[in-house]
Each structure stands twice: as C-alpha cells, then as structure tokens.
Amino acid sequence: MRSLCYVRCVRKLWGSAQASWLFKTPKLHRSVHHKKVMEEEKPWALISEVGEQGYLEEVTDIMKQHFQIICHRDFLQNPHLHGPKIQAMFVWNACPAAEPSMLSLLPSLKVVANGGVGIDHLDVPYITSLGVTVTNTPGVVSDATADIAMGLLLASARKIVQGHQIAVDPKTTHIPQCLMGVEVTGSILGIIGMGDIGYKIAQRSKGFDMKILYHNRSRRSVEDEQAVGASYCQNMDDLLKESDFVMLATNLTPETTGLISHRELSLMKPTATLVNISRGLVVDQDALVKALQCGTIRAAALDVTYPEPLPRDHPLLGLSNVLITPHVGTNTYTTTRRMVQRMVENALAAVKGLSIPNEVKPK
After folding, report:
1. Quick check: 44 and 68 in contact, CB under 8 A?
2. How far, in Å, CA of 44 to CA of 81, rounded?
3. Neighbouring residues of 315: CB distance < 8 A, sequence distance ≥ 6
4. Are 210 and 237 in contact (CB under 8 A)?
5. Which segments of the chain does DSSP mark as H helices, in order?
6. What integer best gives the mean pLDDT of the chain?
7. Which of 48-62, 86-100, 105-119, 185-199 has the lowest mean pLDDT?
8. Residue 230 has what pLDDT?
C-alpha cells in the first residue's frame, strides 16, 4: 500500500511519462545485461579482415549473429590472449592462412570454414589430423561462376573489351569494320570438368545452340546429358581437337595441375579459344603465352592466373588476344551473402557437434 502511494506521488510530481521511465529502468538494465550475456556466450571466430581485402561490410552481420569475430590483424596483437577462445576460422580468399604456425596458436579450434569450393590452399589431411573439421561452400557458387564463364567466352569471341575501348577513345572518329569476332551460336564447346559448375555452363550454352562436348572423371547420367545435349569424351584429346571453345571448370588437384600444356594446346584448333574459370595452375602459363604468340590458338579468356595478380611485367598482360579478370567468378552480392551464410552454418554445426552440411574429408 505504501509503495502504491509512493508511485502516485512521483507521478504527480514528475508527470506520468517521466515516472513510467523511472519504473521501467530496471527492466532496461536487465535487457541490456541479458544481451551482453548472450553476446558473451557466442563462440569466437577468426576472420581475415573487413574491407577492400576481406569481407564486405554488408555481410559481417551474418557472422555477428552467431559469432564474436576478431580480425587477423587484431588477433596478432595478442595471440596468446585471443588464441584459446577461437573455435572457428573463416577462410576467405585463402586468408587467414591455415598454416601450422597459425593453427598451433588455436588450441580450441574446431573448424576451418572455407568460402568457396576450391580447397587447394588448405592441407586437409594435416588440419583434420589435429581434430579440426574442414568445410567448403559447394552449390552456392555455381550460378555466379557459370555466368562469368559465359561472360568471358562471349567477351572474347565478340571482342567486347576492344570495342568498348574504341567507343570511348577520344581519338575515335569512325568505327573500324575490322573489329571482327567469331560466332558463338552453333559453335562447339568442350567442357573439362563437368561438376555442378560445368553442368550449369552447359545449361547456359544450350541457349546459344552450342554443341557440347565434355570430359570428366566419371560420366554424367544419360538424363543429365540429354537435358543439355552433351556428349561425353572419354579421351580429353578428342575434345581438344574438336572444340571451338575449351572451358576449364575442374578442381585443382595433383592430377589437374598443368593439365593444359604445350601438347594439349597444340591439339586445339588455331581458331579455338581457351577459357579458364578453375584455377591458374591448371594451365601451364608459359606454354599458353607461347601458343598465343605463335597463333597455335586464337585467344584465351581467364578469370584465374598464377599468381593472382600476375606480376605487372608478365607477358600475358601484354597480349592483345588475352582477356583477364581478377578471379571475380563469385563476386555478386547475392552469391557472397550465400557463401558467408553457408560458412556460418557449417561452422555452427561443427562447434555444436551437429551434422555438418559441407564437410571436406581428407583423401
């Protein structure tokens, strides 16, 4: 009764709004405290950085919903303080490097969650020997990568970049008729590596009425082949000899390193174009330079090189029949968010001891 009288007195003196705020303040404090406790309960994750050389600011909210994150640079300020807390490492564009010297600083690490399909930069047997799970993000990258593959093919075939340069050149006074490309519609496309990305490239090329050949470790089902009109080449040499465009969409493995070298390039048509959206090391770049200089093949369109970026004096950069993009196959806002979301889902499952959607097992 006395406390009720007190409340009424306060309301008279301060007014109802101020009084309501006064008596709600403890709830506010409890709410802030609760949020702080929840934040502290989130597992810690190590990331590369936020910004131009790391994650887009727009996607960090996905990680922050479930993890307390620390950037590599901040981590290195005091690794012995932060190291024991880290349970997940998010690897983006091969950073932070999951090397023994780094892993030794992370005694509580449970998962290395890689953004992207390729894990050639990760020593999976070594990492898993430490009791740490490795994951990647297949599927979510396939559409964007297939799109860039077709973009490179079209841009190279129709000399789109050269056309743009002429169109915006202040010295241009007429449009040269010698800017001739090659026909895409009805041409022969040979796809080396018919996984998810390769198959999506085939789906897109069907819209250009291209004849599709493919070479893969294992043959796709008859239904898959019929759906895109693809023919299987058990011998890769046959594909190289027949194709107008050779598309590399294979993973980088010891078997595919240097897969395309002098011999393979010599088998291609002199009018053919090599398109690489896999990994730079799949192609012997010295052999490619020579083939392009000598007219062994017509052109090359590359989203990947080795290293990335190439040294500024590399001969590939000076060739007019080469189109290079800086490994941007997955660079769309939609795909980037999906990749980070999948990384988080994989990492959470590993930290919580649940079934992991995209675990990479050592071979």
Report:
1. yes
2. 12
3. 289, 293
4. no
5. 2-14, 16-41, 60-64, 72-77, 79-82, 100-103, 124-129, 142-157, 160-168, 196-206, 222-228, 236-242, 262-267, 285-294, 333-352
6. 92
7. 48-62
8. 98
Q: Is 133 helix (H, G, I), strand (E, B) or coil?
A: strand
Query: Residue 249 corresponds to which tokens in the numbers above?
Result: 């969409």
Q: How confident is the model at residue 10 (pLDDT cuts 50, 70, 90)?
A: very low
Q: Please give the Cα distance from 55 to 70 (Å, whole number).
A: 12
Q: Is 89 helix (H, G, I), strand (E, B) or coil?
A: strand
Q: What is the pTM (predicted TM-score) of this model?
A: 0.87
Per-residue pLDDT, 178: 86
CA-to-CA distance for 136 and 115, rounded, in angstroms? 6
Cβ-based neighbours of 291, under 8 Å, separated by 6 or more: 262, 265, 266, 297
Active-site residue list: 279, 308, 327
> Counting every residue, how long is the chain?
363
Residue 41 confidence class, pLDDT cut points 50, 70, 90: confident
pLDDT tens-digit series, residues 164-177: 999 999 999 998 88
pLDDT for 92 beyond 70: yes
- 132, 347 contact by CB (below 8 A): no
Residue among 268, 245, 34, 68 nearest 149 (CA): 245
